[in-house]
Design a protein that fits this description.
- This protein is α/β, with parallel strands linked by helices.
- The N terminus is likely disordered.
- Helix 3 runs parallel beside helix 13 and helix 6 packs parallel to helix 7.
- The two termini are 31 Å apart.
- The protein has a single domain, classed as Glycosidases (TIM Barrel, Alpha-Beta Barrel), CATH 3.20.20.
- The protein has 14 helices and 13 strands.
- It has an eight-stranded parallel beta barrel. A three-stranded mixed sheet has the order 11-12-13, with no helix packed on it.
C-alpha cells in the first residue's frame, strides 16, 4: 500500500499542466475541481510582492507597513527613483520561472496578497501584474487565490493592513463601498477564468486587541456586502472568508450566506497537533462547509512537517507563508542581503518624522551606499539568484530536489 501511495503521489506531482476546464467549487465539506473531483490544496503565499512587509527586509524596529517602507525609499532614493525601484522590484520578485518552479516542486495553488490601491481602476498597474501571474499559473496548472491583504480603511488595526493602526473599515460606509467596488472590479475581470480559484475577501480582520474586538459584530455584514457586489458580476468563483482576530475566531459567523463559500483560518506558533485545529474541524462538520488553512509557517522545519501531516490527515488544504524572504530559511526560497543593507536597516530604525530631520540627515548613509544597496536588492531577488530551502520543501512533503 505504501508503495502504491508513493507511486500515486509521484504521478500526481509529475503530470503535465492540464487545461483547466470548469470552475473549482464547494461540495459539502469538500472543495472540488471543475470535473467534481476532490481538490486538496497545496499552496504558498506570494507575500512581499504587492505589499512589502518590514520584517521580510529585516527592518526590525523600523518601518513595517507598506506605506512606511515606501516613505523610507522615497527618503533615501528620491521620489522619482523610488517609483522606478518599486516598478522593477515587482517585475523581478515573481516571474514566470518562479511559477514553473513551484509547479515542479509540487504546489498546486498560490495565494496572492494584494493592496486595494493597485486595483482602483480597470487600467491600474496592479492588473498588469495580476493578469500576467494568472496567465502563468493557468499555463502551469496552478490555481490562484486573490487575497485582499490591504483593504480600504484597514481591516485589521495593525501594520499588515497598511492603514492607520485602527480598523476604520467597519465604521466607514465610504471605505466599505470602495472595498465592494474594488472586489467587484476584480471579479468582473476574472469571472470567466477557471485558473482563479476564488477570492479571499479580507486578510486577518480585527486584531486580538480588546479595544477593537467591538468590531467583531460588523465583520460578517461587511463580508455579505462584498459578496453581494461580487455575485452581481461573478457567480462562478469561491468566496473565502476568515474569522476575526487574525482569521482565528469563527464564533462571529452565522449560517453560511453563499452556496459557494469556504472558510479560512490562519495558524501560527501553536502546537502542530489536531487539538489546535479541532474548533475549525468542528465548524466544518457542523456547517457542512469546506475549511482551508490560508497561512501558517514562520517556524522550524520540524514544526512545519508535523503540522502538514496533521492538516493532511484531517483533509485540510493548506497555503504556507511565504514563498520568498531575505536571508531566511522559513520560506521556499530566500535571497542574500545586498551590500550596505545593514546601513539601510540602521537608518530605518531611527524615528522618521520630520521633527527628527536633523538627526536623520546626520545618520544618513552615503548616497553611493544607498544606491548600491537598492541596486543589489533588485539583483538578489531575481530568480537566478534565489536560494532554495530544501528543508522547508521537504517539511511540506514536496519535491525538495526540484530543479531550480
Amino acid at each position: 500500500m505504501k508503495r502504491i501511495c508513493s507511486s500515486l503521489l509521484l504521478l500526481m506531482f509529475s503530470l503535465p499542466a492540464m487545461a483547466m476546464t470548469g470552475f473549482v467549487h464547494t461540495q459539502g465539506t469538500q472543495l472540488v475541481d471543475g470535473q467534481g473531483a476532490p481538490l486538496h490544496l497545496r499552496g504558498i503565499n506570494l507575500g512581499n510582492w504587492f505589499e512589502p512587509e518590514g520584517y521580510m527586509f529585516h527592518f526590525d524596529g523600523g518601518p513595517q507597513a507598506p506605506r512606511e517602507i515606501y516613505d523610507l525609499t522615497r527618503s533615501l532614493l528620491g521620489p522619482d527613483q523610488a517609483k522606478v525601484f518599486w516598478q522593477k522590484y515587482r517585475e523581478a520578485y515573481i516571474t514566470r520561472k518562479d511559477i514553473a518552479f513551484l509547479k515542479r516542486a509540487g504546489f498546486n495553488s498560490v495565494r496572492v496578497p494584494i493592496d486595494y490601491e493597485f486595483f482602483t481602476t480597470d487600467n491600474s498597474a496592479g492588473f498588469q501584474l495580476l493578469d500576467q501571474l494568472v496567465q502563468w499559473c493557468q499555463q502551469e496548472g496552478i490555481y490562484v487565490i486573490i487575497d485582499m491583504h490591504d483593504a480600504p480603511g484597514g481591516q485589521t488595526g495593525a501594520n499588515i493592513d497598511n492603514a492607520w493602526n485602527y480598523p476604520w473599515l467597519y465604521s466607514s460606509v465610504e471605505e466599505q463601498n470602495e472595498l465592494v467596488s474594488v472586489w467587484t472590479r476584480i471579479a468582473n475581470r476574472y469571472k470567466n477564468n477557471p485558473a482563479v480559484l476564488g477570492y479571499d475577501l479580507l486578510n486577518e480582520p480585527i486584531a486580538n486587541y480588546p479595544s477593537i474586538e467591538k468590531f467583531n459584530k460588523d465583520l460578517e455584514p461587511v463580508y455579505k456586502k462584498v459578496a453581494a457586489g461580487i455575485r452581481s458580476v461573478d457567480t462562478h468563483h469561491v468566496l473565502i472568508v476568515g474569522g476575526a482576530q487574525w482569521d482565528t475566531n469563527f464564533s462571529i459567523f452565522g449560517p453560511p450566506f453563499d452556496s459557494n463559500l469556504m472558510y479560512t483560518f490562519h495558524a501560527y506558533w501553536m502546537p502542530p497537533v489536531k487539538a489546535s485545529i479541532q474548533k475549525y474541524l468542528d465548524f466544518r462538520a457542523k456547517n457542512h462547509v469546506p475549511i482551508w488553512l490560508g497561512e501558517s509557517g514562520e517556524n522550524k522545519d520540524a514544526w512545519i512537517a508535523q503540522f502538514v501531516n496533521t492538516l493532511n490527515a484531517n483533509d485540510v488544504g493548506w497555503c504556507f507563508w511565504p514563498y520568498k524572504k531575505m536571508d531566511a530559511t522559513s520560506s521556499v526560497v530566500d535571497f542574500a542581503r545586498p551590500p550596505h543593507w545593514d546601513e539601510i536597516v540602521a537608518y530605518a530604525k531611527l524615528p522618521q518624522s520630520t521633527g527628527n530631520s536633523k538627526a536623520l540627515e546626520a545618520a544618513r548613509p552615503p548616497q553611493a551606499d544607498i544606491d548600491a544597496a537598492f541596486a543589489g536588492l533588485l539583483k538578489n531577488i531575481r530568480y537566478q539568484n534565489e536560494r532554495v530551502n530544501q528543508g522547508y520543501l521537504q517539511a511540506l512533503g514536496l519535491h525538495a530536489n526540484a530543479a531550480h
